[in-house]
Amino acid sequence: MKAAVCTRYGSPDVLQLREIDRPVPRGDEALVRIHAASLNAVDHETLRGVFLVRMTSPFRPPHRVLGTDIAGQVEAVGSSARHFRPGDTVWAGLSEHGWGALAEYVCVTEDALRPKPAGMTFEEAAAYPQAAILALQNLQGTGEPPSTPILLDKGPIEPGQRVLINGAGGGVGTFAVQLAKHLGAEVTGVDAAGKLDMLRSIGADHVIDYAEEDFTRNGRSYDLIVDVVARRPISAYKRSLSPNGVCVLVGGTAAAIFQAVLLGSLTSRRGGKRLGVVMWKPNRREDLDLLSRLFEAGKVRPVIDRTCLLEEVREALGYLEEGRALGKVVITMTHPSETGRTADFS
Prior knowledge:
By secondary structure, this protein is α/β, with parallel strands linked by helices. The protein has two domains: 2-128 and 303-332, Alpha-Beta Complex (Quinone Oxidoreductase, Chain A, domain 1); 132-276, NAD(P)-binding Rossmann-like Domain (Rossmann fold), CATH 3.40.50.720. It is built from ten helices and 15 strands. The strands form three sheets. Strands 3, 4, 5, 6, 7, 14 and 15 form a seven-stranded mixed beta sheet that branches. A six-stranded parallel beta sheet has the order 10-9-8-11-12-13. It has a two-stranded antiparallel ribbon with strand order 1-2. Helix 10 (313-321) links the parallel strand 14 and strand 15. Helix 4 (129-140) crosses helix 5. 48% of the residues are buried. The mean pLDDT is 90.
């Protein structure tokens, strides 16, 4: 089978498209023929070997085949598999199950798989698992107590609250805008000028071009700030929060994340404002079930910038890393059911 293989840290150019052995399902595993996979920021961060990645794997990437989000069809199952059979269409997030989405096939334990909603294309389904669940859980919490005191425990947003999403035009951000509107919030989206019309089209009440206006210095306050590309000090966020406001950092620079984790809980104790990180729980059945219902109701749909072939994954990762993508970038395999392509990196 074909796979995009990484054996060392570096730019997307170090990825090699190789023929490797097709995996064999064992025990409760299913062999999934991947029809579509989507890219996430964690893919290029892992490939580049950002600090947090190198802490756990200093010399080479921890995953030979990158990619965490898939949609496809079960091809075979292991001897103790009970819930899925060949021919079932599925979607899954592989972040806790060995990764491997940038390939034609992957073996996945049954507990990671969910039946693909009938109304979704494979490309749409592949866009969901990581980005949509991150957006959902950072907006409404997980409903479970945090596993450590340095993590933020937050409840769901309430109708009428003012929510700002920084980095709103990317994969997590486009889901967050739609989910926040569904939950009744007044939503402000912050991103590059070229993404603002798209943000309005998916429901943002207000938009800010980050190159023209600093949302932490415009005098407005928000009940919830979700920052997907955090790079500010904690003090900047605090002046933009309402008296009981919450700021959650989903992604960004290591310095910003460390500040939120190490100092957020301390500063939160000094007043009503709270800052920190919500520990996401991937692939939760109840989250995917809710997202399926919202899709079917037309409330939340993935924004897909373009679809690319597996052979174009290096260009696709570079495009995503530059921050140019509007929503998600999806990789399709060269199967007969493949839909039309939209990739154009010229």
